Amino acid sequence: MDKEQATIYRAEKLENLLVFQARYQQFKFGRHTHEDFALGIMEHGVQKFYCRGEARFATPGSLISVNPDEIHDGMSADQSEFHYKVIYLPVELLQNIGNEMVAPRSFHTFKNPVTNDPEVAAGLTSLFALLEGESTDLLEMQTLLFGLLALMLERHGTERRTLITGNAIHTPIQKACTFIDDMVKEEISLDDIAAAAGLSRYHFLRLFRDEKGISPWSYLLHKRLQLARTSIRLGTSLSDAALDAGFSDQSHMSRRFKATYGITPGQYRQAYLS
Q: Which of 131, 158, 217, 265 is most deeply packed, by most CB within 10 A?
């Protein structure tokens, strides 16, 4: 059996949530983020991944819980095969469940990237089994999912306080990110970004890596991939999505997409067409 496999599909019966499942050994994810919350379970092997500034290790039966915009990667911890499944949860869905089923908070988040909770893990395993079945009752899936998420937030959730925009301090790195966001489709240099931040390129490069955990190039690439994902979800052809996001061609986008997300743009597109 091929040890480098990944599939993604939409759970049409359950809020159209995206479900990702993978079996890897040599594959290594590039550092990236997601717009949604990710909640998954390790089924076999040990996955090592960088998140919140340090290495994490997810062992069999443990839960993987990553918040939106948290930079992370992923690989085998010991060169052995590892399997896991993840369901992606829109921000609005998780906030509604947290506020109405747990407690009102400014913004509900998962406390730790790796969590050990046999009860939640067993429930998540049951949910994936229901999603893969052909005659599952909608009410059963909804009840299980919403109850699991409420339990996860009650036991392993925390609050992230948001800054008031008007009082936010625009640091050099924030200025640099804004510049990259505005110029994401253009060819820009390190000198261009450093100038926008008001720093020398060497000082800027060190500060950016220290604060963001990735290079300015990786940040730009991630923003382009986000644009491409949005275009693909809206039904844009892969070639047009690549060009619209600032890639030189579809092949370039496809290579970067697979290296970052573990699936091809075609697989991602199929999940929204099916």
A: 265
